[in-house]
Design a protein that fits this description.
about 425 residues; about 0% strand
């Protein structure tokens, strides 16, 4: 079982490493310009897309769960139709996003806080990066299907290509062509199209035998469509609340000033780096849990859940030690701004606590998604975001400022892991 977990997790970890690497490169490119406003601009601009795509990330998670369960039950028809249905929904979504880009930008500008300069730069970033929506949405569908098929190597190749090309394009546009935030956004757009092209090529090369002529009666089977939307609507709410919570954290950071916004976004990179390592095991959980649920193998289902949580805990320990011993080094890699390096020191403790506090939430996410326990994962997110994070922020931030904001965020992550642990027996095992 450990070999099966590692076979799926390691390619995910390798591909995920490239994601925070990209975020780090973007931060480094902006952090070494003359003003902290550039870091704030890509933070706010990135927040817009995180919130926007959170509505549609169910296309990846839901497709993984449906595909893995179809594979476990050896239902070859549903294996390919889980991809067909996702793509049929994904294409109209991309068109709607592009048509509504101006209203989305105006609404975002009203809701986000920050200086006028930061918001103006964030809008420049938005209007370029919005053209990455089509490949981004379709890659949700394709990568979700690949993971459901117990193949994490193809998403690894796609992620590596996307992020390496993104870094290359961003360096060219920012350092050589002096395009600042616009250059970072354009690099993302071009890289996403490269990734989509590779995904299509690898799909045809490796899974051509699964392709069948589309039967409209099967594709639009009312019972299947209802089940698809029931599961995915819950996952959409869950993803939206998660991203909204992070966006809220970013927005409240902006209210505390450009310097605090830059500091918090730098510290959040440590959260993202750890999350992408842990998500490697979470994605392995999606594939294996879905397969065992589909084959009704309760013995192996219980076993893989225990091992996944053990792997998550094991990963958290070295990260906690690393952040505790080298906090200043981690920050200096991203920015050499003297004000940031001085003001960040009181907040090192939160970077150190992140791994041990958050690992359970990441692992349980993968388990619940693989089991398509969508109602339960939705409810746990409602509890953590609305009934823990917001009250904690309301009570703590007026008295403790940025410390209160960070404590509230960590309480949010604790509540996610704890609530999913308590509800697992009823909904999964």
């Amino acid at each position: 079982m450990n070999r099966s977990i590692l076979k799926l997790a390691i390619p995910n970890i390798i591909s995920n490493i490239t994601i925070p690497l990209l975020g780090l490169v973007d931060m480094i490119l902006m952090g070494h310009l003359e003003s902290a406003t550039y870091i704030g601009a890509i933070a706010l601009g990135g927040t817009i897309f995180s919130v926007l795509y959170s509505f549609f990330s169910f296309l990846r998670a839901g497709t993984t769960g449906f595909t893995a369960q179809a594979l476990g039950s050896n239902n070859t028809t549903e294996i390919i139709y889980s991809l067909y249905r996702a793509v049929c929904i994904g294409i109209p979504i991309t068109l709607i996003i592009l048509m509504l880009q101006t209203p989305i930008a105006k609404l975002s500008a009203l809701l986000l806080d920050g200086s006028d300069e930061v918001k103006a730069l964030a809008m420049n970033y938005f209007y370029v990066r919005i053209w990455a929506a089509p490949p981004n949405i379709l890659l949700y569908c394709l990568n979700g299907w690949f993971v459901g098929m117990q193949n994490t190597k193809i998403p690894m190749f796609i992620a590596i290509l996307v992020n390496v090309m993104n870094i290359i394009f961003s360096v060219i546009f920012v350092l050589l062509l002096n395009q600042n935030v616009t250059g970072v956004a354009l690099g993302t757009v071009l890289a996403q199209y490269c990734g989509l092209l590779l995904a299509i090529v690898l799909l045809i090369k490796n899974y051509k035998s699964y392709f069948v002529k589309i039967n409209k009666e099967i594709l639009f089977d009312l019972s299947k469509i209802k089940h698809f939307f029931k599961i995915n609507s819950d996952l959409m709410i869950r993803s939206f609340l998660l991203i909204i919570s992070i966006a809220f954290f970013t927005n409240q950071s902006a209210k505390l000033g450009d310097n605090i916004l830059a500091i918090n976004m730098i510290l959040l990179q440590s959260f993202y780096i750890f999350s992408y390592f842990t998500d490697g095991f979470a994605y392995a959980g999606e594939a294996l849990v879905g397969k065992f649920v589909g084959s009704k193998d309760k013995k192996n289902l219980s076993k893989v859940i225990r091992l996944l949580l053990l792997w998550g805990f094991s990963i958290s320990i070295p990260f906690t030690i690393l952040y505790a011993i080298f906090p200043s080094t981690c920050v200096k890699i991203i920015s050499d701004n003297p004000n940031i390096l001085t003001d960040v020191k009181p907040y090192y403790i939160y970077m150190i606590l992140i791994p041990i506090i958050t690992f359970a939430a990441f692992i349980w996410d993968g388990i619940y998604i693989g089991a398509t326990a969508s109602k339960a994962i939705r409810n746990t997110m409602i509890i953590a975001s609305i009934f823990v994070f917001l009250p904690a922020w309301y009570i703590l931030t007026p008295h403790f400022g940025n410390h209160g904001l960070w404590i509230s965020f960590l309480c949010f992550m604790i509540a996610r892991g704890l609530s999913m642990s308590l509800m697992a027996k009823k909904n999964i095992i």
